[in-house]
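Convert to structure. Protein one:
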Amino acid sequence: MAVNNTNSNMGDKEDEELSKLLERKARELAKAVGNEPVELSADNFDDFVRSRKVVVVDFWAPGVRRVSYLSQS
């Protein structure tokens, strides 16, 4: 019995194209907003978040080892 892998191969190609688009968009966003980290506190947090369209906040505590859970598979 023959198996048609056309849909499977097309899905792989679409996944690859989507990944490329997402990577390009991420680079564009990073360039537009700057890549410099900003130290936020209770005093400046609200103003900082309100002043931007997109904000990524990385919460961590001194002395606690940071672990990255994101990986490319």
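Protein two, convert as well:
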Amino acid sequence: MKTTVALVLAALPALAGAAPIPFAQYIKIFTGMAEAEVIDIAGSPDYRSDGPTTMTRRPDGSRVYSRRYTLSWRAGGVTPYTTHIVFRDGVVEEIRRDKQF
């Protein structure tokens, strides 16, 4: 019984979602930042959406691969904004904040 209770209590933090990004932290995020810097400011995201990996050819015939993905922090509590940050190859490309009603 004690073991079961201890396991349930240990799992609770993992079940909790990430906190939304307060405005004071949101304004510190800008395009060109690395993913690690964003997570250091905003904390772990609620959701990660992997986008496509694209390939382009250079004039010399070599291939360049680029990966795009989005990290999202859902609205909650006193912060009614969901924040989506789009990364290309680990660098912020786009920042969007949507108000939830």
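Strands lie at 47-57, 63-73, 81-88, 91-99. Residues 18 and 44 are 6 Å apart (CA to CA).
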